[in-house]
Amino acid sequence: MTGAGRPRLSTKKRPGDTAREEILDASAELFTTRGFTNTSTRVIADAVGLRQASLYHHFATKDDILDALLSGTVDAPLAVAQRIRDSGADASTQMYALAYFDAGQLAASTWNLGALYLLPELRSERFETFRDHRYTLMSLYAAIASDTLDQLDSERRSGTEDLPFRLVETVVNARADRENGRRDPTADAAGIAEAALRVLGWTGDVTALHRSAETLLEAVVGIVEDRRSLHST
Amino acid sequence: MTGAGRPRLSTKKRPGDTAREEILDASAELFTTRGFTNTSTRVIADAVGLRQASLYHHFATKDDILDALLSGTVDAPLAVAQRIRDSGADASTQMYALAYFDAGQLAASTWNLGALYLLPELRSERFETFRDHRYTLMSLYAAIASDTLDQLDSERRSGTEDLPFRLVETVVNARADRENGRRDPTADAAGIAEAALRVLGWTGDVTALHRSAETLLEAVVGIVEDRRSLHST
């Protein structure tokens, strides 16, 4: 094996600007459609048109690929959640904005990577950093939910703060069922965000809340155009 | 191999009154903790203390075991949902009762089998019957949700009817995270049922709704005592 520096065997087979991105895209497809255990690094290398040795130059193990993919689903919402929490906006606007952003990115990703969250393999120490980041995101959701309950003066029931995060992750299950042939309508990102507020006892004008959340997202990240185009599809 | 009729190799190793139940229990543990692909029928046979040939007498393939386990998570709520729908009770009581029953059984099962719902293996024709039953259950949820929206005169947003079912399935994710070391509180079956109503725009006295749902479940199935003990844990 001549290894890392070797030129590509063939022309570009996958979306992505770099070999690393192509490897991630091919792995995401294979892991979500054939399963993580059923996919070898050899099959991934073949799908990208790389020698296995070149693949190992980018990722030493298959676990490293999985970690990069899963971290990609959590790191953007985590950064956005932290900025939203520091924004000083009112709690219900923060809650809607976070759920709307996160449900939108889970719905719009090329592959339904959230379907891998329940893999038993993720219990190993190798994935501790990913788990920590995901639990930090959950805690930010819970903190914003708790502030929203205070703002609404809703009755507190143990575990209610966990529900907005859980609702957002249902995008993953709805996508999986759609890919599996189910045709009934499912909630879009705005529908999920509205539901995240309702489970906290919120009732009110969702049009006004949606607008203030878009303004907040615009201030927090330059992504409102992406959100809008997502929402309109 | 002398096959099917052969006596057990050892004394009983697993919970269950019959060899079939012990095979199902061991498989549920192995599939949810080590993964479906990572578990061979040989490992299952060893865990139960059976020869592989005897295992094949009960289940011809590993897929048959998975199908029996998954069907077990859907068939009881499906039967209950059909009786609830035919009960003539008011829609919000039906909705609460179904979500409460179903979230309770997902939370109380020995193994977190719902974590297997997103396996790519389930897309094959072998699991068409299971998928059909699960989609029928989803449709019953959606029909009861739609009646509840009518009753509440809530504004209709596409996909809202899908949310009560999705909320109930989040019990699976909350369990998986707890088994993975997360300590924050999560909603119990009653909290999930209340949230299932709130996403439909319901606001009101949850104590009265809980009581009428228990009465309905008592009429529909002789399981209210189980529900109560579930709720109190």
TrEMBL record, chains A, B:
KW Transcription (keyword) present: yes
Organism superkingdom: Bacteria
Entry-linked InterPro entries: Homeodomain-like_sf, HTH-type_TetR-like_transc_reg, HTH_TetR
Pfam families for the chain: TetR_N
Keyword Magnesium listed: no
HTH tetR-type domain span: 17-77
Protein name: TetR/AcrR family transcriptional regulator
Species name: Rhodococcoides yunnanense
